[in-house]
Amino acid sequence: MDTVLGENKLSDGGILCNKCLNKATGINKDLVYNLINYNLAEVRDIVLGESIVEEEEEEVEAQPVVKESISRTVVTFSHSFQLNVNSRKEPTRLDEIKDQIIALNTSLSISANTEVNELANVLDNSEKLIAVAEGKYLNNNLEGILVSTERRVIFIDKNLLGSISEGEFSHDKIVSVQHSYGLISSELKLFTKDGVKAEFKLYNRNAAKNFYESIQGYINRPRSSSEERPESNQAAEDISKKDETIAVFEKLEKLGKLKETGILTNEEFEEQKKKLLGKL
Questions:
Q1: DSSP secondary structure of 9-59
Q2: 217 CB burial (10 A radius; 0-12, 13-18, 19+)
Q3: 24-43: pLDDT as tens digits
Q4: In whole angstroms, what separates CA 239 from the centre of its chain?
Q5: How far is CA 117 from CA 81, 113, 251, in A?
């Protein structure tokens, strides 16, 4: 490492090796003096952008063919997804999920691909990602990805044998969230109404804070009146029916006594009885 340049440190805390630094500065000489103002994604964009331009120039010279679709690589630190621009194929649910991850500018490694692909089977079609992070679920010591939609937080781990482990926490069951920093990682803690404490170690120093800020507005929200109405109406309806049934039997009992005392004839009693039973 080049100690003169502060061990090649970047703005996001990453460190660039000398080989990569030489290659990047060969393209952009400003990096030598302003390395601390660049993050790893920007350095990679510089290197990848130059490589793409050189490849395209070589292709044009060798075979000037116009392609129907253009492919570009979107890099978030060490994780990349291939997106098809102007593609004639309809986007799949997995394509939509990957687009959402890219929009969140999340740091994921290539090893998280299996969990990312599994999201298409875990999330409902109506769910949209609002937070994604890679890390370890300290409760069971499994590694995977922690995601949040607008209604729940989910941890997913998929091992080499294909088995899947999930931990799900509904936003309305989460009462509080805590986050803390480490040197190169961070920790996130969820506390639920059921007394569960879920702890996660996230592999990026800012990941826990970003995750916390993304879900803070959704957790422990009281149900809206529209959400509560079906349950309250049902309970009220049940009580009303019970009261009405009791009232009918009380009236039948009174009618029976009126019949016994001769105030009501058999015909009158049967007529009133039929009316009351019709209300049940």
A1: B-TTS-B--HHHHHHHHHH-TTHHHHGGG--HHHHHHHHHHHHHHHHHHHH
A2: exposed
A3: 777 777 766 776 777 777 77
A4: 39
A5: 11, 6, 66
Nearest CA among 62, 68, 168, 170 for reference residue 122:
168
State the DSSP string of 114-155.
Answer: HHHHHHHHHS-TT---SEEEEEEETTTTEEEEEEE-SSEEEE
CA pseudo-torsion sign 143, 148, 149, 153: positive
pLDDT tens digits for 33-69? Answer: 776 777 777 777 776 665 444 444 454 454 444 444 4
Q: Which secondary-structure segment (H or E) carries 7? A: none
Residue ranges with strand state E in 149-239: 152-158, 164-170, 174-181, 186-192, 197-202
Round to whole Å and give the CA distance between 64 and 52: 16
Amino acid at 107: S
Q: At what angle do helices 40-62 and 18-27 cross, to 10 degrees?
A: 60
CA–CA gap between residue 226 and residue 52 (Å, rounded)? 53
Long-range contacts of 88-93 (CB under 8 A, 24+ apart): 92/120, 93/120, 93/123, 93/125
- Who contacts 22 (Cβ-Cβ below 8 Å, separation ≥6)? none
Q: How far apart are CA 120 and CA 108, in angstroms?
A: 17
